[in-house]
Design brief:
Order of helices and strands of chain A: EEEHEEHEHHHEHEHEEHH
Number of domains of chain B: 1
Largest interface: A-B, 38 and 28 residues
CATH architecture of chain B: Orthogonal Bundle
Strand content of chain B: under 5%
Oligomer: heterodimer
Number of domains of chain A: 1
Strand order of the largest sheet of chain B: 1-2
Shape of chain B: globular
CATH superfamily of chain A: P-loop containing nucleotide triphosphate hydrolases
CATH topology of chain A: Rossmann fold
Number of helices of chain A: 9
Structural class of chain B: mainly alpha
Distance between the termini of chain B: 41 Å
Structural class of chain A: alpha/beta
CATH class of chain A: Alpha Beta
CATH topology of chain B: ABC transporter involved in vitamin B12 uptake, BtuC
Distance between the termini of chain A: 45 Å
Strand order of the largest sheet of chain A: 6-7-8-3-9-10
Chain lengths: ~250, ~325
């Protein structure tokens, strides 16, 4: 058994003639919290879409726990133990908070698409959904349509959905974007809590969040990783400061 | 007058529920896959012809059971081997694909069954008046249609709100990507919904082909009305499709029986309209003759003043 949860080897992605990802190599260890930072347009979200199977690779390969997952459809990758969130909040707005979580639990807990079984009778799923709602502090609002939750709570719900299936590898795309300072602090606490013992790959713009949360950081600039290191080293790396941090603080 | 109102209400209910059987599938397919399926009414036509063919061979009742799943299977195959491959070229390509499919089905029906309407009679068991009110008879077959379509409505509602597959479908209506990322096989769900929607259209054809007429032009006749229904109801809204189906059926049914013209209306409020002159033809148009325009007029007005439709949540 390897200790690498997620491995990207020489991954390329082009859309037509424009090269978005240019030979990315990355190894995320089991249990590691790994952040990807980089200026806008660096290809961070594209990288997520490649890993989770939403885009086909142009070249290179990706392994999840030693399984080759390049070019598998998203649901297959999810079933192999990788779960992701999206940059734009992707909850199901018309369904209740509880149903949102339940939806995320059906497949991982072994329930397919039979339409002769009533949802309300699935005791195991309902108990597990309750447990997740407690963890993300939304148990008291379980019957509200998810679209009516406050923004920060919607993002919390999305994190809840993402981790619900108990995937080993979690990908979060800008989980604290658009949050106030105190909301961000709470979100970081939540993320730290729910990813304990799991592997986390997170794209984030908020440097405070990144340096608080990540064990290691990779800097992606124009489709290439220019540095991967511990937060303190990244902070001091002149190449990184020029490419990214310098611009941010200016 | 009371007789006219009651029977028009009953008839619009029959037509409205038939429209809903078509529009529910179309609106589900649209909001889930983003595909505006121009061939949807063609599946309705296939249902009618399959129903007719099976009826002449082994009777109406087996046809009622066999034809809709056949159409559904055909729809699922179209999704799996047609639309899914076209999908990567975007929505315009998908739209053109369904338009082409509609023509293929129409010409295919022409080839096999000919250009004229086929004789697809009411089954003997239902060929009697079920009740007589004010000397007007209401046929048992219409009552049967109403019964089938209400049963379908209840079943559809139950599946979508109470079952696992319904939960997934509802979730995929707004965020198919997220559902896919949660480990659900969204392409398979798409195929299922497309097949299911086609089967519903097929069922509408089996029973509607008798009620209306079974001919190669039937898809082109009903198709636009179904589109009006989902635009007026709001793209992707089942409740909207339900309300709009009944509303449009009522508008059409009632308009046919009202023989007032503009000049009559003006006379009613005491204005003697100029019945000669350059506008003389306009004054004499009877409301009953405007029946075919009214749904489209209604749609244009809805698009102008409430573009999301009556119940729609999504910009189209």
């Amino acid at each position: 058994m390897s200790t690498t949860a997620l491995k990207l080897a020489d991954v390329h992605k082009s859309f037509g003639s424009s090269k978005i990802i240019n030979g990315v190599n990355l190894a995320v260890a089991k249990g590691e919290r790994h952040a990807i930072i980089g200026p806008n347009g660096a290809g961070k979200s594209t990288l997520f879409n490649l890993i989770s199977g939403f885009y086909p690779l142009s070249a290179g390969y990706i392994e999840l726990n030693g399984h080759m997952i390049s070019n598998l459809p998203p649901h297959r990758i999810n079933r192999l133990g990788l779960s992701r969130s999206f940059q734009v909040t992707n909850i199901f707005p018309k369904m209740s908070v509880f149903e949102n979580v339940r939806c995320a639990l059906l497949w991982p807990m072994g329930y397919g698409y039979s339409f002769w079984h009533l949802c309300d009778r699935l005791k195991k799923i309902n108990a597990k959904a309750e447990e997740i709602l407690e963890r993300i502090n939304l148990a008291d609002r379980r019957h509200i349509p998810a679209g009516l939750l406050a923004y920060a709570d919607q993002r919390a719900l999305e994190i809840g959905i993402t981790i619900a299936g108990n995937a080993e590898v979690i990908l979060l795309d800008e989980p604290t974007a658009g949050m106030s300072l105190s909301e961000t602090e709470r979100a970081v606490e939540l993320i730290r809590d729910v990813t304990t013992g799991k592997t986390l790959l997170v794209v984030e713009h908020d440097m405070q969040v990144v340096f608080n949360l990540a064990d290691r950081i990779s800097v992606l600039v124009y489709g290439e990783i220019v540095a991967t290191d511990h937060p303190d080293k990244i902070r001091q790396n002149p190449q990184v400061q020029e490419a990214y941090l310098g611009k941010e603080s200016a | 007058m009371l007789e006219y109102i009651i029977f028009s209400l009953l008839n619009s209910l029959v037509l409205g529920m038939l429209l809903f059987m078509l529009s529910s599938g179309l609106t589900l397919i649209f909001s889930m896959m983003g595909v505006l399926n121009f061939a949807h009414a063609s599946f309705y036509m296939l249902g009618a012809y399959f129903g007719y063919q099976i009826s002449t061979a082994i009777g109406f009742w087996p046809a009622l059971i066999i034809a809709p799943p056949l159409v559904g299977l055909f729809g699922a195959l179209v999704e799996r081997y047609g639309l899914r491959n076209v999908h990567k070229y975007g929505h315009v390509a998908e739209l053109l694909f369904t338009v082409g499919l509609a023509f293929i089905i129409e010409e295919g029906v022409n080839l096999i069954w000919g250009r004229n309407a086929v004789t697809y009679p009411i089954p003997k068991l239902l060929d009697f008046p079920i009740f007589t009110l004010f000397n007007t008879e209401f046929s048992a077959y219409r009552m049967f249609m109403l019964f089938i379509s209400v049963a379908i409505f209840i079943a559809l509602y139950w599946i979508l709100t109470r079952t696992r597959i319904g939960l997934i479908i509802q979730a995929a209506l707004t965020h198919p990507q997220m559902v896919n990322a949660l480990g659900h096989n969204v392409p398979a769900v798409f195929m299922l919904v497309f097949g299911g929607g086609s089967a519903l259209a097929g069922l509408a054809g089996v029973i509607g082909g008798i009620f209306l007429v079974t001919e190669p032009a039937m898809a082109a006749t009903l198709g636009p009305i179904v589109f009006v229904v989902i635009v007026v109801g709001g793209m992707g809204s089942l409740t909207g499709a339900f309300v709009a189906s009944l509303l449009l059926a009522a508008i059409q049914t009632f308009a046919v029986g009202i023989e007032y013209s503009l000049s009559d209306l003006l006379a009613l409020v005491g204005i003697r309209a100029e019945v000669g002159g350059i506008l003389k033809d306009l004054w004499r148009i009877q409301l009953s003759h405007t029946g075919p325009i009214l749904p489209y007029l209604f749609m244009v007005l809805i698009l102008m003043f409430r573009p999301k439709g009556l119940m729609g949540k999504r910009e189209t």
